[in-house]
TrEMBL record:
Protein name, UniProt field: RTA1-like protein
Membrane-topology annotation of the record: Multi-pass membrane protein
Pfam families noted in UniProt: RTA1
Originating species: Mycena belliarum
Keyword line: Membrane, Transmembrane, Transmembrane helix
Chain ranges passing through the membrane: 38-56, 63-82, 97-119, 140-160, 180-202, 259-279
PANTHER family reported for this sequence: PROTEIN RTA1-RELATED, SPHINGOID LONG-CHAIN BASE TRANSPORTER RSB1
A cellular-component GO term for this protein: fungal-type vacuole
């Protein structure tokens, strides 16, 4: 037997042993696979850029409500993908798995709250007569619903991550499923109401007798509405994925397929959070009028009227 043949057999044996070891590690991993290091780094970079942009934009435009919404979403995703990066080198360790499963479930919820706030301001500028809800009621109804979904998902994530057996983890996943299902229902109701508002505005069909003026649909507001539609759609897709994933169970094919998670969870939330960077409400929405500004405008109008009287 030649030296070349012996070396070739040793290489094949080593390759088979390495493949077998890799498969054993994947089987023992909490995920059912070993998370990709390069993908985790990519998402950490993307979420880091978006979060820093949101911090700078929120500060520049003085939109402080973006900190507990868009910025909080970015921080949550950074924690989750940090856990997945840790798991890429230590796939059988429990702690990073707990971190990622809790934070990636919860993190997109605050971003949805930002959508509700932005849309309420769009309604205020275009005309509340075309909406079944006043701008104020969009926040009164939908923000608490978002908080409820957040709390339920958090409780379920905590139960699943601290469970000592599969039965306990399954119970936690059912609680998370309830929270995501409730959030999914909130998204659907919001989408129906917002879609009806846009239709009524375009057709000039007020829900009730017109109250106030009909605001112009400027290019800035068109872009803001398009951004809201796109970001809501991506979060809708992500919610559908999460519902199917949790219904399939902890040992199901969906949760054990990394590509599905990377595209339908990480990818969708990246698109949603960057959408609000590029189509930022501070740039596209008129600043809310204050009593002082309104008073000055009224006084200026009265003065202009008096001058016209004197001229004639």
């Amino acid at each position: 037997m030649s030296v070349f043949t012996v070396a070739l057999r040793q290489l094949n044996a080593t390759a088979n042993t390495t493949a077998a070891e890799a498969q054993t590690i994947a089987d023992n991993a909490k995920y059912g696979y070993v998370p990709s290091e390069s993908i985790a780094i990519l998402f950490l970079v993307l979420y880091g850029i978006s979060t820093l942009l949101h911090i700078g934009q929120a500060t520049f435009y003085r939109m402080w409500w973006l900190f507990p919404t868009a910025v909080l979403c970015g921080i949550g995703e950074l924690l989750g993908w940090g856990g997945r990066l840790w798991s890429s080198s230590s796939p059988t360790v429990r702690t990073p798995f707990i971190i990622q499963i809790s934070t990636t479930i919860i993190a997109p919820t605050p971003l949805l709250a930002a959508t509700f706030i932005i849309f309420s301001r769009v309604v205020q500028q275009l005309g509340s007569s075309y909406s079944w809800l006043t701008p104020k009621w969009y926040t009164i109804l939908f923000l608490p619903g978002d908080v409820i979904a957040l709390v339920v998902q958090g409780i379920g994530g905590g139960m699943a991550s601290t469970a000592d057996d599969l039965a306990g983890a399954e119970t936690g996943s059912k609680v998370m499923l309830g929270g995501i299902g409730f959030q999914f229902a909130v998204i659907i109701i919001f989408s129906i109401l917002s879609g009806d508002f846009i239709r009524r505005y375009l057709c000039d069909q007020p829900v009730r007798g017109r109250v106030g003026s009909r605001g112009p649909l400027t290019p800035a507001l068109k872009l803001m509405l398009a951004a809201l539609v796109f970001s809501t759609t991506t979060l809708f897709i992500r919610s559908v994925y999460r519902i199917i994933e949790l219904q399939d169970g902890w040992n199901g094919r969906i949760i054990h397929t990394e590509l599905y998670f990377n595209v339908l969870d990480g990818g969708m939330v990246v698109l949603a959070i960057f959408t609000l960077n590029f189509a930022h409400p501070g740039l596209l929405l008129r600043p809310a009028s204050t009593p002082a500004l309104e008073k000055n405008a009224t006084l200026q109008s009265e003065e202009t009227g008096q001058m016209n009287v004197y001229l004639y």
